[in-house]
Design a protein that fits this description.
381 residues; mainly alpha; 53% helix; disordered N terminus
């Protein structure tokens, strides 16, 4: 950039640096120049058309257009012939295109690195994203398989940041913005959703849920859950944020007005559900050996009511609207009664053959509420 904002004429002027050639993939004997962001790449067309990619169709259409111009006696340089007339790729980053060229030009021992601890997972994320866009199907599958294998290992997600800070724009700060070898949890989630890779997405969501349980990055989890319709994750994040209270909602810059309205709706809906919880025991499927379903149902209703009503004494600080927390604690208490770790006050005597069914019904009620949490954070209930 120029040191002065005023040119010789006194008019404000700025010098903007032109495109620069990529140090690795501006290949001397390449026959096609492409511009991605502000970086020029010179590669071989035949390489970009591998794997029946979208570049094959792109180059075919470009050739047809050039033929039509030549027939009309219009002399125009073919797009991609030189640095002054490159093929411009919109919506891609130079890092993504560089990752694609790495996969297309790499030697076998370089490709083998993706199966080792030295794998550059950010490069694989960039590769999977751009191969998905340009339909390099086999390379996309290979990259996604490598990522899934890496993040299926125990503890592999633990070192991932939830998100990366924005890159610094100044060219002299480029060294500080070199690609990290570790992608963010947001990037992995976005990629898995984009490529419809269920196994990788499930692993990412499991990591989000652990973070939600620790009270970390709740607003970001809400945003990602909404963006990709990850209902179970969204519900848990909204529930955890709700329990932090309105004073915390108002301080979080990531929460919008619509988010705060949803949180208020959830607070109201779950509060109403909590008030009726003791009178609504899970439905039990009676055993064929059950001799009196009426007596069994009465005993189960009494046990359920006693457990729910005892919760405030056991955990006085548990919020009224924390229905999920209450159900999980109730599940633990009923299991302890079944195993005779704590007394059941005689309620289990009235249901000798349906205890396992009652335990199963309780577990399913917990799952039902957990999976449907997001539905309580709307004004439709």
């Amino acid at each position: 950039m120029s040191n002065s904002f005023l040119g010789d004429s006194g008019i404000l002027s700025l010098s903007i640096p032109g495109p620069s050639r990529d140090p690795n993939y501006y290949i001397s004997d390449g026959n096609t120049v492409l511009l991605v962001e502000n970086t020029l790449f010179k590669v071989h067309r035949s390489t970009l058309t591998k794997d029946k990619s979208a570049f094959e169709t792109m180059f075919q259409l470009s050739s047809e257009a050039d033929s039509a111009r030549s027939e009309s006696s219009v002399t125009v340089a073919q797009e991609g012939d030189n640095d002054g007339n490159p093929i411009r790729l919109q919506g891609d980053t130079a890092d993504e295109f560089r990752a694609l060229l790495w996969a297309l030009y790499a030697l076998p021992h370089e490709l083998m690195l993706v199966t080792t601890a030295e794998a550059n997972c950010t490069q694989l994320v960039n590769l999977a994203r751009i191969t998905h866009k340009y339909q390099f199907r086999s390379i996309e599958t290979w990259a996604l398989n490598a990522l899934n294998a890496h993040y299926s290992q125990p503890g592999a997600f633990d070192a991932l940041p939830s998100s990366h800070p924005p890159a610094l724009p100044h060219p002299h700060q480029q060294a500080a913005n070199e690609i990290a070898t570790t992608p963010s949890l947001v990037q992995i989630t976005e990629l898995a959703a984009l490529c419809e890779r269920a196994d990788l997405l499930a692993s990412a969501v499991a990591r989000w849920k652990r973070q939600i349980g620790e009270g970390k990055d709740l607003a970001l989890a809400i945003e990602i859950g909404e963006r990709y319709n990850l209902r179970s994750m969204l519900g848990l994040a909204l529930h955890a944020m709700m329990l932090q209270g309105k004073s915390c909602w108002d301080k979080d810059p990531l929460l919008t007005r619509e988010h705060r309205i949803r949180l208020l709706c959830g607070h109201y809906s779950l509060g109403k559900l909590a008030d009726s919880l003791s009178s609504q025991p899970p439905s039990v499927a009676h055993s064929p050996r059950c001799t009196s379903q009426q007596r069994c149902t009465k005993a189960w209703s009494g046990l359920w009511k006693a457990v729910i009503e005892a919760l405030p004494q056991i955990v006085p600080t548990m919020p009224r609207e924390d229905v999920l927390g209450k159900l999980m604690l109730a599940e633990s208490m009923i299991k302890a009664m079944m195993e005779k770790d704590i007394p059941s006050q005689g309620f289990l005597d009235g249901m000798p053959h349906c205890r396992e069914s009652a335990m199963y019904a309780t577990t399913m009620r917990v799952k039902e509420i957990r999976d449907a949490l997001a539905d309580y954070f709307t004004d439709d209930i």
